[in-house]
Design a protein that fits this description.
The protein is an all-alpha fold and 396 residues long. It has one domain. 71% of the residues lie in helices and 0% in strands. Helix 2 packs across helix 15, helix 4 crosses helix 11 and helix 4 packs across helix 13.
């Protein structure tokens, strides 16, 4: 396709979207969000490695337990970031032709190569880890609707959140496309509190907390908190009001977590799996909003640093791979009868696992992810459409 025709096809307005509903397009990369993504993956590594090594130290304090276990909220931060970025992409491209195929094609190139290479490699090299729960729940992204399974969770325990993300990617583009502009925020408001209601309802009916924590409709508040920010920014909400709203959400979320997030206190599990997750959604929604707005010069400079941006670029592969070196170190130290570890040695082991995970992710980015991401500009669906509707213009 000639360059001029490619440029026109990429920007041609979608005739099914009214001019009044054309959103304000937000351009430019937000470096601060890269820093948040890097922090999120480090929190996930921290809670998983800390759970294996630090919390096995008999001298570990309640404060250390809380510091380690609350690191699992890195997943909440990932969800909020995903809701913000994906909703922004959908709103910015809603008026263009090939809205659906372009979105799904780009998401597939970003998510599937690493995921399926890892999954298929595990099936070949260690099929026993999938012997009970099977391959299909992972391959078709519905693992989060099933209960716990120790054999598969050793290597694939983190994949429940990828299932949530894929289910979000499947449904949310349809909602953004067909939902009228004036109903977006009311719908987000309903979904936000519906997640809290569903968690409370399921917990009151003795549903396993393993499922409550992983079911997509119980984690909607994180995703729509980020989506709300993307919608408000593109609806030309006054910056002063948006800044106050983000600060309010951050403060309310932080204060709420101070009272419900103390690990080991009476009723901790009930509070955390109900309002606790809502407070995390508010906290990280406010933080993401403030970073997207560029609030705080010092914080913006720190989050935009090259160290965090390097980790952010490889965060997805780090998330996929990190349980492999973690479990390998655990088995090695257990066979050497070195467990439980004292805190200084545990921290050294955690650092080594982090470095190995980053090295694996670097190789993945260099030799697997980057080649596939270069295919994003290959919009084969537009060529099919042109062939079917306009035979006077030859395609490549």
């Amino acid at each position: 396709m000639p360059l001029r025709r490619r440029m026109i096809s990429n920007n041609f307005l979608n005739p099914h979207v009214s001019p009044a509903d054309q959103p304000k397009v937000i351009s430019g990369h937000i470096n601060q969000l890269d820093g948040l993504r890097a922090i999120a993956i480090m929190m996930v590594l921290w809670v998983h490695t800390g759970g294996y090594f630090l919390l096995r130290d008999e001298s570990s304090s309640a404060l250390l337990n809380s510091f380690v276990l609350n690191g699992r909220s890195g997943v909440d931060l990932f969800f909020v970031l995903s809701g913000f970025l994906i909703t922004g992409i959908l709103l910015d491209t809603k008026q263009r032709m090939y809205y659906f195929p372009r979105f799904y094609w780009r998401r597939a190139l970003r998510i599937w190569p690493v995921y399926y290479v890892f999954l298929c490699s595990a099936l070949i090299l260690h099929h026993r880890s999938l012997s009970r729960i099977g391959f299909a729940p992972f391959a078709l992204y519905y693992r989060n609707f099933l209960g716990g399974d120790f054999a598969s969770d050793i290597y694939f325990g983190q994949f429940w959140s990828l299932c949530v993300e894929e289910q979000f990617y499947l449904v949310w583009p349809l909602i953004i496309y067909f939902c009228p502009k004036q109903l977006r925020m009311p719908l987000i408001f309903v979904l936000f509190f519906a997640a809290l209601f569903l968690r409370t309802y399921l917990l009151s009916h003795h549903t396993d907390t393993y499922l409550i924590y992983r079911l997509t409709y119980c984690r909607m508040d994180d995703l729509v908190a980020g989506a709300a920010l993307a919608v408000l920014i593109r609806h030309n909400v006054r910056p002063v009001f948006l800044n106050k709203l983000c600060w309010s959400a951050t403060i309310i979320g932080g204060i709420g977590l101070y009272f419900v997030g103390r690990v080991g206190s009476p009723g901790y599990e009930i509070r955390m799996y109900t309002v606790g997750l809502t407070f995390f959604a508010l906290l990280y929604g406010g933080v993401v909003g403030l970073c997207a707005r560029g609030s705080g010069k010092i914080a913006s400079a720190l989050l935009s640093g090259s160290f965090l941006r390097a980790i952010s670029k490889r965060s997805y592969a780090m998330y996929v791979f990190h349980l492999v070196p973690l479990y390998a170190f655990y088995k090695l130290l257990a066979n050497m009868r070195l467990l439980p570890l004292r805190v200084p040695l545990a921290l050294l082991v955690i650092l080594m696992i982090g470095l190995i995970t980053y090295g694996m992710a670097w190789l993945s980015w260099r030799y697997l992810e980057s080649p596939f991401l270069r295919l994003k500009s290959w919009e084969w669906f537009s060529k099919i459409s042109t062939t079917n509707t306009d035979d006077t213009h030859p395609t490549e």
